[in-house]
Amino acid sequence: MAKVTFITNNNEAIVLEGTTGSVMALAVAHNVKGIDGDCGGVCSCATCHVHVKPEDMVKTGQASEIEMDMLELADNSNEYSRLCCRLELSDDLDGVVLTVAK
Ligand code: FES
Question: Which helix (H) or strand (E) holds 28?
Fold first, then answer.
């Protein structure tokens, strides 16, 4: 079980819990604004771009090479960027805070 907090572009904090599947799927299922998941989670659209709270990078890890390639094309990407379709829900992610990228 992981509790995930999304900070939307209007600074609303949305706290969701999930056990399996991707963080993107969890967000889309709960209509988190700004997480669209247009490609269905195959790392080819960047509509699931989030910024990880710096101290939570230990929970998420760094983006993979293929993810980095996609993030290079995304607006506002930085060293804390992840595509949340690449983040699988697990106990390791519990408490993570993700800001939806603009
Ligand atoms: S849903 Fe398309 S890259 Fe994550």
Answer: helix 23-29
Give the model confidence (pLDDT) of 13-58 as tens digits: 999 999 999 999 999 999 999 999 999 999 999 999 999 999 999 9
23, 26, 28, 47: residue to mutate for ligand 1 pocket, most atoms within 8 A of CB: 47
- Mean per-residue pLDDT, 64-75: 95
Cα 36–Cα 42–Cα 48 angle in degrees, nearest 5? 30
CATH of 2-100, one of 3.30.2420.10, 2.60.40.10, 1.10.150.390, 3.10.20.30: 3.10.20.30
Atom of ligand 1 nearest to the CA of 46: 3
